[in-house]
Amino acid sequence: MPTAQDRAYMLQAIEVMRNAGVVNKTGGPFGAVIVKDGVVLAACGNRVMADHDPTAHAEVAAIRMACAKVGSHDLSGAVLYTSCMCCPMCYAASFWARIDKVYYAAACEDYAEIFDDVVLYNDLELPFHDRKLKPEELCRAEANAVWDEFRKMPDGARY
Questions:
Q1: What is the pTM (predicted TM-score) of this model?
Q2: Which helix (H) or strand (E) holds 40?
Q3: What's the average model confidence in pLDDT over 98-126?
Q4: How many helices (H) and strands (E) in the chain?
Q5: Which residues are within 8 A (CB) of 150 and not within 5 positions of it... i.e. 6 or more apart?
Q6: Nearest one of 4, 20, 6, 5 to 105, comparing CA atoms
Q7: Helix, strand or coil for residue 98?
Q8: Is 44 in contact with 65 (CB distance < 8 Å)?
Q9: Which of 1, 9, 78, 141 is the most buried (most CB within 10 A)?
Q10: Residue 34 phi, psi (nearest 5)
Q11: Tens digit of pLDDT for each residue in 30-68?
């Protein structure tokens, strides 16, 4: 159950949202705050327009900042407060960063006429090869040769 402190962190994410989308216009109105053990590790707004980077969502930017701050790709124990429901990319980034909990304010249906998160969620529900981008396998054996090589490395990255 969310606490008064959770609400305060969310209101901070909403203020970051307003700064990004309305005041500074660095991207859409999206803001994210990452907290661990009562310490704010990152507070970032969307930077898609400012950085000319479609992956510069508030949550991804905050994850990058928080990971740099703690010196690890692992944010276990952290909580993400995001002004809007995570898109699939941001959800996946949160998952891979090992964030323990995500709170969001607005649902993607609340802004569906402006941003197409709902369309993307619907596309992801389709069978893999029926999706909009029509993913198609190519050079699998060659890629698997690299995987075989990587598996044999005793010091290869594991995460």
A1: 0.92
A2: strand 39-45
A3: 95
A4: 6, 4
A5: 156
A6: 6
A7: coil
A8: yes
A9: 78
A10: -115, 130
A11: 999 999 999 999 999 999 999 999 999 999 999 999 999
Determine the Cα angle at 81 with ends 66 and 56, to 5°: 55
31: its two tokens = 């803001």
User: At which residue do the structure tokens 């009562």 appear?
Assistant: 38
The amino acid present at 122, given as its one-letter code, is: N
Residue type, 106: A
Q: Which two three-digit tokens encode residue 17?
A: 């949202």
CB atoms within 10 A of CB 132: 11
User: Rounded to whole angstroms, how far apart are CA atoms 69 and 71?
Assistant: 6
What distance in Å separates the CA atoms of residue 100 and residue 78, rounded to the nearest whole number?
Answer: 6
Q: Which residue has the tokens 């930077």?
A: 47
Active site residue 136: no
